[in-house]
Amino acid sequence: MGKQPSAPKSPTAPKTKRPLWPLVLVAILLWQAWGLLFPPPAPVVPEDTAGMDAEVYEILEAKLERARKDPSDAAAHATIGLVYEANKMWDEAERSFSNAVELEPARAAYRLHWAICLRQAGDVEGGLLQLRELVADDPTMRAARQRLGRALLQAGETEAAMIEYRAVIAMAKNRLEGYLGLGECLLRLDDFNGALEQLEKARDLDPDYGPVQYSLGMALRALGRREEAEVALAKGMQWEFSSTRYLPDELSEELSRYTVNFVGRIENAVELIESGRAQEAVGILGALHRSRPQDTTVMVNLAAAHIKLAQLEQARVMLDKALTLKPSEFAIWLNLASCYNDMGRLPEAETHVNRAIELAPKVGRAHFIRALILVKGARLEETYDALKTCVRLDPRKADVYDFLAEICIRLGLTDEALAHFQTSVGIEPDNLASQVSLGIICVRTNRKREAQAALAAAQRLNPDYGAGLDVADQKTQTLAARIAAMP
After folding, report:
1. Structural domains of the chain ordered from first start
2. What's the rounded Cα separation, in Å, for the pair 309 and 314?
3. What is the pLDDT of residues 316-368, one digit of tens each?
4. Looking at residue 373, what is its pLDDT?
5. Of 13, 76, 90, 480, whose CA is between 20 and 30 Å from 53?
6. Residue 273 and residue 290: Cα distance in Å, rounded?
7. Nearest to 239 by CA among 326, 282, 306, 297
8. What distance in Å separates the CA atoms of residue 469 and residue 472, rounded to the nearest whole number?
């Protein structure tokens, strides 16, 4: 039988492509519905604008406008939070950072500032919880670990705080914050020797930082070293605006730009004066003085800025006004003494510095200013006595030891001068002038090996000294030549 032909297959109908526009439409509708059900947070506006500083309000308005245009922008809410935080408006700051974290929960800096503001706004436990979670997620964030350490110490969890501060020290060995925090923990545990060790490390990094000096004084007092304790405590209480210093985070620089309230502006001005930017400080302090013409804190700091700029008559007039308002204020008398000294009016300078010392006899700087006045009158023995008092009260100031050494040379006390220069370079080994001075006095006293060591340090600090372009170059050359001529 032959094979039957198979039936022809029916042709397959071509597949029709489904249009995508219904899916796109559904997605858009769902997105819109989500936006209606869960809209992005509105920017936080201040609850009370009547008492708000005009400058704060002006800054804030521009930042609010950005967030109103795009309320889903986490950075816009964070910036608003920074304006509030910088000006101590804690409730508004906390809600603003809460918005930023809601929109961008992975941003560690937003979480850190939310925790800070939670605590400042009164939710201490909530802020501590956020800090714990943040450090658990990112143990390398040193700013968060310092904040957590402080929060734990305040909560009475001293052992846990010590873990955080030791981590801070490991990550920031050249910053005082970890040593200070650990020292405060050890004070809490009555380990006064251990506290002293950590606090001395912090002091060596910044001898003028008030909180370090105060804690150091407490440790010294507990150890029975009462005279040293009084000196440190006097320094600690001298600096009214030495607020707690925190390690910076990625938002710290922006935060500093928005500080326009009173205490923040004073702190900012003091930092500018100390960093050599006195003219900028005058602008800030001048505006504050116009709004607070009777505030002696503003007047003293404004005068200090004028002194830095050699605007001595302006400084004197300002300080005289301040003195009429607070005739027993140590800082006013001392600044007036410095001003009169720079003006060459030595009798008035001496009168004012003596009164400053009466008011605060344990503050080394007053005795240093007195020495600066006395040396101009060639009263070398009195200058020597003033500087000896100064180094006893303030033993970590290299420039004071240099000054004292120079006076010793003029008085023929060569061995003592050598000892003071050695102390100076021990405190500041990278001070070129001190190394050269040490080398020269070693040559005078026939100490060739010590002179060579000082020259080597000077050459390391100033490798191009052979060019002879400035006084430091020339002094280093002179030292090298004198050593070469030694037998």
Report:
1. 54-238 (1.25.40.10), 396-486 (1.25.40.10)
2. 10
3. 999 999 999 999 999 999 999 999 999 999 999 999 999 999 999 989 999 99
4. 96
5. 76
6. 19
7. 297
8. 8
User: What is the Cα–Cα distance from 162 to 184, expressed in whole angstroms?
Assistant: 9
Extract the tokens encoding 403: 């000054």
Sign of CA dihedral 137, 141, 143, 148: positive
Distance CA 111, CA 126 (A): 12
Provide the residue type at 147 as one letter. R
Does residue 198 contact residue 179 with C-beta atoms inside 8 Å? Answer: yes
> What pTM value is reported for the model?
0.64
Burial class (CB in 10 A: 0-12, 13-18, 19+), 164: buried
> Taking a C-beta distance cutoff of 8 angstroms, is the pair 389, 421 a contact?
no
* CA atoms of 387 and 409, how far apart (whole Å): 14
Q: Can you read off the two tokens belonging to residue 360?
A: 């605060």
How far apart CA 174 and CA 27 sit, in angstroms, is 55
Place of tokens 């109103």: 68
How far is residue 429's CA from residue 461's CA, in Å, rounded to a whole number? 10
CA atoms within 13 A on the CB side of 199: 27
CA distances to 167, 245, 252, 343, 424 from 143, rounded to whole Å, are: 11, 11, 10, 45, 33
User: What's CA 377's distance to the chain center, in Å?
Assistant: 37
Q: Which letter, b or e, does each residue of 303-336 get, where b requires 16 or more Cβ atoms within 10 Å of its Cβ?
A: bbbbbbeebbebbbebbebbbeeeeebbbbbbbb
Calculate the dihedral angle through the C-alpha atoms of 284, 290, 293, 295, rounding to the nearest 10 degrees.
-20
Amino acid at residue number 52: M
